[in-house]
Design brief:
Shape: rod-shaped
Distance between the termini: 61 Å
Radius of gyration: 27 Å
Structural class: alpha+beta
């Protein structure tokens, strides 16, 4: 008989703790550390060298030369963020009960393009970056 009296208390504790579960964190897939923040922190015109650019961002996707014969590096990187969510609820009044459940999936992508121009001493002469989100 004492086990039956403890059952509502145990169920109440379990339901309360179940409501305290954190939602899942977004899953991010990124293939480099190339972000607008890193570009602004690590590229300084007249100071940053090619070796430092390689260290921070890795190998460029495209290398070309401009009209003056100076080297131009182009980086393009993509990132995708995916998140799933679900919610459920349950309420009861005496013996009647109601339950609900919903779920969803959200995905977004972004693309960053970085173009770096070097001078004749292999130091950053100019750079431009652009981010697109879709």
């Amino acid at each position: 008989m004492t086990h039956i009296r403890k059952l509502p208390l145990i169920l109440g504790v379990v339901m309360t703790l179940g409501a305290c579960v954190d939602p899942p964190q977004p899953l991010t897939q990124r293939n480099s550390q190339l972000t607008q923040g890193n570009v602004q922190m690590n590229l300084i015109v007249g100071k940053t060298t090619k070796a430092q650019v390689l260290e921070h961002f890795g190998s460029p996707n495209i290398t070309t030369r401009d009209g003056a014969g100076r080297e131009v590096w182009t980086y393009q990187r993509a990132a995708q963020v995916s998140q799933s969510s679900s919610q459920s609820g349950y309420w009861t009044i005496i013996l009647a009960g109601q339950s609900s459940r919903s779920s969803g999936f959200e995905s977004s992508s972004s693309m960053i393009t970085l173009i770096i121009k070097f001078d004749e001493h292999d130091v950053v002469n100019d750079f431009r970056s652009r981010t697109s989100k879709f």
